[in-house]
Design brief:
By secondary structure, the chain is of the alpha/beta class. The protein has a single domain, classed as TIM Barrel (Alpha-Beta Barrel). It is about 45% helix and about 10% strand. Strand 4, helix 4 and strand 5 form a beta-alpha-beta unit. Helix 11 runs antiparallel to helix 13 and helix 12 packs across helix 13.
Length: about 300
């Protein structure tokens, strides 16, 4: 068996645009969907971390998912973020979500309460048992403190409804271990934009990207160069994003990428507290880097 081809390539973790009153700007969201679709992304990821999921209400999430389904002329696959640190609440969220037209859910490792690996296995098994659509694990220890051990991922990969992982450990050794040991039909998706080319070189299948919000064509070209074995061409684009990607996280995600979208005229840079929008200094650095690398 091979990996699910719907999720190969570039998935974009879509930002949630806000207006100056910090209300969701649904019109800007629809425009952004068009920009991403025309830019050639392979699938949409709705309400991941980059979508500011902790501060978007349940009703807003419902509307954003609805608009994604309604404004998807290329019929791109849709991944929807449903996760948390209370297993029961996650199961309730799955039960109450309209997952018709959703191709998979992305579920983050529980944060704050620091479960053991045994707890993580039970948590994700319960989610996979309850979900009517396939489940992608999301491992991001920089935000959640705990990390899925390689052996834990391999155990969860045996569940028929857990089809892959988005990993943001920034560890190439971890990436190589999974590429070596995971089942061949288990999706391996980078959560680190700066490591996409080297991760693909050892067998990973793509990325769920932040950068692709503002630069879908460039990031898509890079990713598919790598997937098709043109690593020198992929590396050239990867290097052009190297300094830029670091800047995106200086004041937390999605502060940086929202500033880039504002510079390019797609959305405002507003974010909800406790995040604050990009400082003038960061904005100038992002703009000058975009100009230098030919992104603007």
């Amino acid at each position: 068996m091979s990996v699910d081809q719907r999720f190969k390539g570039v998935g974009v973790a879509i930002v949630t645009p806000f207006n100056e009153n910090l209300e969701v700007d649904y019109d800007a969201y629809v425009r952004l969907l068009g920009h991403l679709s025309e830019g050639g992304v392979d699938y949409f990821v709705v309400q991941g971390t980059t979508g500011e999921s902790p501060t978007v209400t349940a009703s807003e999430k419902k509307q954003l998912l609805k608009l994604t389904k309604q404004n998807n002329p290329k019929n791109l696959p849709i991944v929807y973020g449903i996760g948390g640190n209370d297993t029961h609440s996650v199961l309730q969220a799955i039960a109450s979500a309209d997952l018709n037209g959703v191709d998979a859910i992305l579920s983050v490792t529980p944060y704050y309460n620091k479960p053991s690996q045994a707890g993580l296995i039970k948590h994700f098994t319960a989610i996979a048992d309850a979900s009517p659509v396939p489940v992608l694990l999301y491992n991001v220890p920089g935000r959640t403190v705990i990390s899925l051990a390689v052996e834990t991922v391999l155990t969860l990969a045996q569940h028929p409804n857990i089809i892959g992982i988005k990993d943001a450990t920034s560890s190439l050794e971890y990436a190589m271990q999974l590429a070596w040991k995971a089942p061949k039909d288990f999706l391996l998706l980078s959560g680190d934009d700066n490591l996409v080319t080297p991760m693909i070189s050892v067998g990973w299948h793509g990325v769920i990207s932040v950068i692709a919000n503002a630069f879908p064509k460039e990031f898509g070209a890079m990713t598919w160069h790598a997937l098709e074995g043109r690593f020198s061409e992929a590396a050239k684009i990867q290097f052009s994003f190297l300094d830029f990607d670091t800047l995106l996280y200086v004041e937390s995600n999605p502060v940086g990428i929202k500033k880039c979208l504002e510079i390019k005229g797609w959305t405002s840079s507003e974010v909800r507290l406790p995040l604050v929008k990009a400082s003038d200094e960061l904005g100038e650095k992002l703009k000058s880097t975009m100009i230098r690398e030919g992104f603007l």
